[in-house]
Amino acid sequence: MAEAPKREIRALMIPIEGGNLVLPDVAIAQIMSVLQPVPIDDAPPWFLGMVPWQKQEIPLISFEVASGMTTSNRRQLSQAVVIKVLGDNEALPCYGIVMSDIPHPVRITGETILPSEDAADVAATISCNVQIDGEDAMIPDLDALESMIIEHMPAKAA
After folding, report:
1. pLDDT (tens digit per residue) in 64-118
2. Which of 47, 60, 128, 134 can bridge 96 by disulfide, Cβ–Cβ 3.0-4.6 Å?
3. Cβ atoms 32, 94 nearer than 8 A
4. Please, which residues have CB within 8 angstroms of residue 10's CB and are 6 or more apart in sequence?
5. Are 61 and 48 in contact (CB under 8 A)?
6. Taking phi first (over 0 means left), then psi (-120 to 50 degrees means alpha), and beta for anything else, what does residue 55 get?
7. pTM score
8. What residues contact residue 17 under an 8 Å CB cut-off, 6+ apart?
9. The Cα angle at residue 137 between residues 97 and 96, in degrees rounded to 5
10. By the 8 A CB rule, do 150 and 44 touch?
11. Distance (Å, rounded) from C-alpha 94 to C-alpha 105?
């Protein structure tokens, strides 16, 4: 009898100041260089502002700060990953998450992913902590994150 094909998810391991995020390729629109974001009045510290991307303004956030992680005050805004919102949400088609280094591709199968030892200690923005090929990563809760962003979007952008 033929062996069933392995199910595989292609993803990117995205370095952030507090560790790594892992996101499926289908959720990623682009890796972009970041200019200084235009700040939003009364926005929380994790909402860094709006940045231009493909003839539109999109929110730029710090996942680390949104998740309650401590970060250095010397953050250099140089690159971000642009996330495609996978539902029908005209108010938020895309947004950016600041990266701390260059992302790399990973292939996830049942053999390469394991729950992390600190899997129970997660913020509302994190679905779970995992290890992929021995490398620690966080799977973000994109629905929770997107709800937070929409709540703080400027009126003209929302």
Report:
1. 999 988 776 656 678 999 999 987 777 899 999 999 999 999 999 989 999 887 6
2. 60
3. no
4. 24, 25, 105, 106, 107, 108
5. yes
6. left
7. 0.89
8. 64, 69, 71, 72, 75, 100
9. 5
10. no
11. 21
Query: How many other C-beta atoms lie within 10 A of the C-beta of residue 4?
Result: 6
Q: Which amino acid is present at 97?
A: I
Q: Over the chain, what HEC string results?
A: CCCCCCCCEEEEEEEECCEEEEEEHHHEEEEEECCCCECCCCCCCCEEEEEEECCEEEEEECHHHHCCCCCCCCCCCCEEEEEECCCCCCCCCEEEEECCCCCEEEEECCCCEEECCCCCCCCCCEEEEEEECCEEEEEECHHHHHHHHHHHCCCCCC
Burial label, 96 (beta-carbon count in 10 A; 0-12, 13-18, 19+) = buried
Phi, psi dihedrals of residue 66, rounded to the nearest 5°: -60, -25
